[in-house]
Amino acid sequence: MAEQVIFDKKPGAWRTFCVSTWLGWQIESNWTDLFVFLIYSIVWPLSRAAILVVMYLVIRGADFSNPEFVNMYLGNALFGLIGNVVNSVAGGIIEEREHYRTLKYLYVAPIHIPTYLVGRGVAAMAGGLLSLVTTVAFAAVFLHMPINFGQINWLLLIPAMLFGFIALVSIGLFLAGWALTIKNNPWVLGQSFSSLFFFVSGAVFPLSVVFGNWEWPGYIFPVGFWLVLTRRAIVPGVGHSFQMYTQLSDLQLLGLLALYSVVFLGIATLTFRMFDRKAREEGMIDMVSNY
Amino acid sequence: METKVIKQDGWRLFARTVIGRAYPRVVGTLRDLNWLFFDVFFPLVNMIGYVLTYQALKAPQEYVGFVVLGGAMSAFWFNVLWSMSTQLYWEKETGNLSLYIVSPTSMMAILLGMALGGMLSTALRAVVILGIGTWLFHVQYAVTSFWVLFAVFMLMIIALYGMGMMTASLFLLFNREGWHIANLFEPPVMLFSGFYFPVKTFGFWPGVAASIIPLTMGMDAMRQLAFPSGEATGLLPVRTEIIVLVGLCVFYLLAARWFLAYMEKLAIRQGKISDRLS
Amino acid sequence: MYAIETNKLSRIYKIKKTRKKPASTLVALNNVDLTVGQGELFGLLGPNGAGKTTLIKILTTILGPSSGTAKVDGLDVEKEAAELRKRINMVSGGETSGYGLLTVRENLWMFTQFYGIPSNQAYPRIDELIKLVGLEEKADTKCSDLSTGLRQKMNIIRGFMTDPQVLFLDEPTLGLDVTAARDIRQFVRGWVDENKSRTLLLTTHYMVEAEELCDRVAIIDKGRVLAVDTPEALKATIKDRSIYTIVVNRLDEDDFASLKSIEGISSGSCKQTETGCRMELAFEEDGVINKLMNFLSERGSSIQTLHKREPSLEDVFIKLVGRSLSDAEKQNGN
C-alpha cells in the first residue's frame, strides 16, 4: 500500500510568521555577496551619520561629546529603524503585488496576511539593528561619545524596543492596508509617513525647532516617545537632557508608548481588515498601479 | 508599404538619435506628473530636514543657502545615478538594448540622448526645488557674475552626465549588481561632494580626491560665486576649479566612449546584451 | 548571393560555476551550415532551447559566434556589422521594448530616428502600417496600457517600418491569442510576397506556423540543423508511410517503448491523457495495424479511436529527432 502523506493544510500563525521572517530577510538582504551586503548595511547608515557629524563640525567644532549632539546623532541613527520597519511592512505588500506579482498567490494560500507582513517587519528590524549597532559603535570608538555599553538601561531599553516595534509594525500595517486600495503610486504612502515622522518625532531636533511652543504634534504618533525613551535608555542622563517630553518620567513615557502601541495595533488590525475587504471588492489584490 | 524609405546616416543619424532618445525623457516624464511628488516633494522634504538641523545648531543663515543649493543639485545626482548609470541595465532587461545594438545608430548617440533628456527634465525639477527653498527660507544670494556661474553649472552638468554615460557601460557589465553599487554610492557621494557644507571641511587633499565627482568642484565654485562669504569656504580658486571641470568633461566623455566600445565588444562576445538562451 | 549564409557556425556558452554545480559549457549551436535565398520566407523550427534564438542573435550582430562564419545580405556579421545594421531589423515575441509612457505612435517614431528616417517620412509610414495591422484606435494610447497582443502588433510595425532587406522574427506569435496570431501571420506573408528582394527569417516552435507560412523550413534541435527543405518536401520524406492517430484506453510508457520494436512501425510518440494514451504512429504499410492490435490485446489494452491522416511536419520532426516537439521541450528543460 502506498504510504499515506499527511500534511497540515492550514499552517499556523507561528509557521506563517517564521516563513515570512525568513522571506523578508531574503528580500532585505538580497545580495549575491555577503561582502556587498555588509558594506551596504555599514556604508549607508555611516554616510548618513557622517553628514550630520560634518554639519555639526563646521558649525560647532569637534565637541562630539556635547549632549546636544549625542542626542542628535542617536536620534538620527534610531530614525533609520523607523523607516526600515514602516517601509518594509507598508511597501512589502505593494512589492508583493506589483514587483514580484505574488500577492494573489499569498491570498490564495492559507496564510494570515498581517502575520506575514509582521514577519517581514521583524526581518527589517533585524537588518536595521545591525546598522544601528554599527553606527553607535562608530560614535563610541571614533567620536568618543559618552556611550558606555555597561551603562545602558536594559530594563528600559528592552520593553521600549518591544513596544516600539509593535507601534512601528502597527503603523506599517495600517499603511499597508491603505496602500492596497490606492491606484496611483501606492509606494508614496510609506515614504511620506517616514518623512512626516522625521519632523514630529524629534529625530534630530526637538519639536520646538519646527513647532515652537506646540508639543501636541509629538502626541499624535508614538514614534517620538520611542525615540526619546531609547535615547534615555542608551545614554542615561544625556538622553534626559533632550528637550522633548521633559515633564514625563521614564515610566510615564514607557506607559504611554505601551498604551499607544496597543491602541495602534488594534486600529491597524481593524483598518487592515476594512482596507482588505475594499481591495477584494474592487479587485485590487492583483492589480498593477499606474506610475 | 512599398514606398522607398530614405535613411540618413553620418551626423544626421547621430543627431536624430540624440533627439529621438531624449524625447521620452522630456515628454514622457512631463506627461506623468508623479515626478512632482518623487523628484520635488521628497528632495524638498529632505532639504527642509537639513535646513532645520542647521537652524537647531544655530548655524549662520548662509549655510541654509548651501543646503538649498545642494538640495537642487541633488536632483541631478539622483538623475545621473538612477537614470543614467543603471539605465543600460534596465534597457537590457526590457529588451531595448538589443534593439539599439541592432540599429545602425551609434550607442554614443543613444547615451547622449539619454543624458540630454535627463538634463532638461531634471533642470526643471532643480529650478522648482531651488525656487521653493529660496522662498521658504529667505535665502540671500550675492552673484558676482551670472555668466561665470552659469558656465560653471554647465561644465559641472556636462562632466557629471559624462560620468553617468561612462558608468552606464560599466554597470551593464556588473549586471544586477550594478543597481546595488549605485545604491551603495548614493550617500557617500552626498557626503564627500559637500551637498550640505563646504567640501573644504574635509581638508585639502580629501577635497581634491572627492573632486573626481564633478559635483564637488562644481558646487564649490557655485557656492563661491553665489554667496557673500563663499570665497572663504572655497577649496580652490574658481578659475582653477573651472579648469579642473573642463578636464573632467573631456576625461569623462572620452572614457564614456572607450568604455562603451569595450562594453559592446565584450557583451557581444559573452552574450550579455540579452541573457535569454534558447 | 544568398540573403543569409552560415558556414560551420557554432556558439558555446560558458556557464559559471555555482555553489552546487561546477563550471560547464553549453553548446547552443553546433556547426550550422545554412543558406537562405533572397525573397524567401524561411522558418527555423525547433523546440525551446534548440538554438534558434542564438542563431538569430548571431545573425543580427548582438552575439558573436564561437567559431565559423555568418553573412547576411553578403556582409560578415562580425567584420561588417555597422554596414549590416542598416539593412536588417529584428522583432522578438513577448518583447516589452519601447517606453510605457510614450504612445504607440511616439514609440514607433523614436525607433525610426535610430535608423535616420526623417520625421516627414516616418509619420506617414507609421500611420500606414498602423492602419494595415489594425491599430488605428490605439495609435495615441500609451504603450503601458496595451494588451500583449496589441503590443506585439506595435513591435511588428517597428520591425517592418525601417524597410529592412532582411528581417528576423523570433517567435513573433508567442503568447498571442488565435486572432492576433493569424493577423500577424497574414501581414508577414504579405510583406514578403509584395517585394521579392525582401527576406524574412522566422523562428517558431509552432508546427502550423512553419507549415502555413514558410517557403522553406530548417528543423533544428540541440544546436544542429537536421533537415532543410520546403514543408511539402519534408513531408514527402515520410509519404511512403501511413500516419495514424490512435487513442487506446491504457498503455504505460514501458509498453509504448516495447511497441516500437514491432516490425513495420518506423516512428511514433505517445501522450498520456485522462482517458488513456494518444499515439502518433508511422507505419511502413497499413498491414502493421494487425500486429499492433495483437500487441495491445496481449496487454489488455484496446483501441478507442483510430484515424489515418496526412503526414505533418510534426511527423517529420518525430522521425528526425525521435520524439515529439513537446517531449523535446520537456527534455530541454522548458
Features:
heterotrimer; A: 291 residues; mainly alpha; 0% strand; disordered N terminus; B: 278 residues; 78% helix
Compact overview of the structure:
With 291 residues, chain A is an all-alpha fold. Chain A has helices at 13-28, 34-60, 67-99, 103-108, 113-142, 154-180, 188-200, 207-211, 223-234, 250-281.
Model description:
The complex is a heterotrimer of chains A (291), B (278) and C (334). With 291 residues, chain A is mainly α. Chain A has helices spanning 13-28, 34-60, 67-99, 103-108, 113-142, 154-180, 188-200, 207-211, 223-234, 250-281. Chain A has one domain (13-281). Helices cover 69% and strands 0% of the residues of chain A. By secondary structure, chain B is mainly alpha-helical. Chain B starts with 9 loop residues before the first helix and ends in an 8-residue tail after the last helix. The mean pLDDT of chain B is 89. Chain C has 334 residues and is α/β, with parallel strands linked by helices. Chain C has a 6-stranded mixed beta sheet with strand order 6-7-8-3-9-10, sandwiched between helices. Chains in contact: A-B, B-C. The A-B interface holds A 31-33, 36, 39-40, 43-44, 47-48, 50-52, 54-60, 72, 184-185, 188, 191, 195, 198-199, 204-206, 209-210, 291 and B 32, 34, 37-38, 42, 45-46, 48-50, 52-59, 63, 176-177, 180, 183-184, 186-188, 190-191, 196-198, 201-202.
Could you tell me the number of beta strands of chain C?
A: 14
Beta-strand residue percentage of chain C: 25-35%
Q: Which ranges of chain C are low-confidence, i.e. pLDDT below 50, for 5 or more consecutive residues?
A: none
Q: Over the alpha carbons, how many angstroms does the gyration radius of chain C reach?
A: 23 Å
Mean pLDDT of chain A: 86
Task: Tell me which protein chains meet in the greatest interface and how many residues each side has.
Answer: B-C, 44 and 56 residues
Query: What Rg of chain A do the Cα atoms give?
Result: 20 Å
Instruction: Determine the N-to-C terminus distance of chain A.
Output: 57 Å
Task: Outline the secondary-structure elements.
The complex is a heterotrimer of chains A (291), B (278) and C (334).
Chain A: H1 13-28, H2 34-60, H3 67-99, H4 103-108, H5 113-142, H6 154-180, H7 188-200, H8 207-211, H9 223-234, H10 250-281
Helix pairs in contact in A: 1-5, 2-3, 2-5, 3-5, 3-6, 3-7, 3-9, 5-6, 6-9, 6-10, 9-10
Chain B: H1 10-31, H2 35-56, H3 61-85, H4 87-94, H5 96-102, H6 107-137, H7 146-174, H8 177-192, H9 204-210, H10 214-226, H11 230-233, H12 238-270
Chain C: E1 4-15, E2 24-36, E3 41-45, H1 52-59, E4 67-72, E5 75-76, H2 81-85, E6 88-92, H3 104-113, H4 119-132, H5 148-160, E7 166-170, H6 178-194, E8 199-204, H7 207-213, E9 216-221, E10 224-229, H8 231-236, E11 242-248, H9 253-259, E12 265-273, E13 276-283, H10 288-298, E14 303-309, H11 313-321, H12 325-331
Parallel strand pairs in C: 3-8, 3-9, 6-7, 7-8
Antiparallel strand pairs in C: 1-2, 1-4, 4-5, 9-10, 11-13, 11-14, 12-13
Helix pairs in contact in C: 3-4, 5-6
